[in-house]
Specification:
five-stranded mixed β-barrel, mainly beta
Length: 141
């Protein structure tokens, strides 16, 4: 898990961003040093939970093993996955991520509603690395 990028609490699973107190710009991944808005004089950056839902902005699939520096075990077969860009409802920003396993480009359409859910990036006998996935709201896997 990337510390501070998402949390699961009483409100459910949420991506976490930061909001500038001076200009109200929201950032994901989070920004903890300075406001990225070039027109802003700067303000405090406060952690904020992001919208759980959004709409598909774009999507594609990864059918081949990417070249280095992508880290992958060449001894294991490549497992294709679907990438999705989602425009969050309230923030009006686009966040990239993978879809839940089993959802392919054939299942997606621009404008479709999706929700963020916890996912597994990788795991071994000792550790499970968690991440976020996007799931169409009509799919309950």
């Amino acid at each position: 898990m990337v510390s501070g990028w998402f949390a699961e609490d009483g409100d459910g699973f949420r991506l976490l961003g930061t909001r500038c107190s001076a200009c109200a710009s929201v950032f994901f991944p989070r920004e903890d040093v300075h406001c990225r808005n070039p027109g802003c004089p700067g303000g405090e950056l406060d952690e904020v939970p992001l919208s759980r839902r959004g709409r598909v902005w774009s999507y594609t699939d990864s059918r081949y093993r990417p070249p280095s520096p992508y880290v992958t075990d060449p001894e294991l077969p490549w497992e294709p996955y679907t990438l999705i860009a989602v425009e969050l409802e309230s923030e009006r920003m686009v966040v990239l991520g993978q879809t839940v396993p089993g959802v392919t480009v054939a299942d997606l359409a621009v404008g479709m509603e999706v929700e963020v859910v916890p996912g597994v990036l990788n795991e071994d006998a000792e550790t499970t690395w968690t991440t976020w996935h996007w799931r169409p709201t009509e799919v309950r896997k």
